[in-house]
Amino acid sequence: MYCDFNAELKIGAIMTWNGFLFGAKELPLWVFPIRAIILYAFLILATRLMRQRQIAILAGHNYLVAAGIVSLAAVRMVNPESSLVSGIVIILIYAAVNVLLSYLDVKFPRKVGRHSTILIENGRLIKKNLLDARITIDNLLGQLRIKNIFNFSEIDTAIVEPTGKINVIKKPQFLPITRKQMNLPFKNTGIPVILIYDGEIQNDSLQTIGQDFSWLDKKLKEKGVIKVNDVFLAAYESDGTVYISV
């Protein structure tokens, strides 16, 4: 009897393990969160392999891969009869194919991916390009309203990008007045340089702006900060000021 009981336990464990990997009509509830975690981890891995291009969805095949992978993973998270192993394999194959197509798109952009199309040039609508891009006048007007453009007469050039986004260049008379036109001094628009992050001084950043610890310590004391460890973030901003957050 004891041997039979042990044999039944082993058979049950094997069946549960096989069901976990390859699917079964019924699975214990604890299997579903584990399968979901594993599939999610492989989705993250696939996204890492596909890099930033997949996140931006710059081409049609990127969009198809994103939609396909998500739907595939969702089915295997909730359907007990679906195979976890096949799901992982398909996710990795999707990622590999997408990486290959993205590489080919870089090498041969006109062959694999879509390209930018001019919809309006010199203020004139190009009907052929609108038809080629499958964009109706209502579609175009909607995109223009998002950019706070309500009149065709304001537009010099409009281009639809491979992502489907429409970029617009206005005619000179409809452009906003610039600081140069108003003879105002230019503003420095450089990005902030992180000097301290979570209590740790970024020495490379200090060298980048040509300063040292004495200068940074002086700036901290001007803000009433004594210890560097008390600073969560200190950044050298484009106008020369030092932003400090404790």
What does this structure look like?
This protein has nine helices and eight strands. The protein is α+β, with helices and mostly antiparallel strands. It folds into three domains: 2-110, no CATH class; 117-174, 2-Layer Sandwich (CRO Repressor); 193-245, CRO Repressor, CATH 3.30.240.20. It has a four-stranded antiparallel sheet. A four-stranded antiparallel sheet has the order 6-5-7-8. The protein is flat. The relative contact order is 0.07.
Q: How would you summarize this macromolecular structure in one to three sentences?
A:
By secondary structure, the chain is of the alpha+beta class.
Strand-helix topology:
Blueprint: H1 2-22, H2 31-56, H3 60-78, H4 84-107, H5 109-112, E1 117-121, E2 124-125, H6 127-132, H7 137-146, E3 155-160, E4 166-170, E5 193-197, E6 200-201, H8 203-208, H9 213-222, E7 233-236, E8 242-245
Antiparallel strand pairs: 1-2, 1-3, 3-4, 5-6, 5-7, 7-8
Keywords: Cell membrane, Membrane, Transmembrane, Transmembrane helix
Transmembrane segments: 27-46, 58-78, 84-104
Protein name: YetF C-terminal domain-containing protein
Task: Write out key terms for the chains shown.
246 residues; cell membrane; four-stranded antiparallel beta sheet; transmembrane; CRO Repressor; 3 domains; DUF421; transmembrane helix; UPF0702_alpha/beta_dom_sf; disordered N terminus; alpha+beta
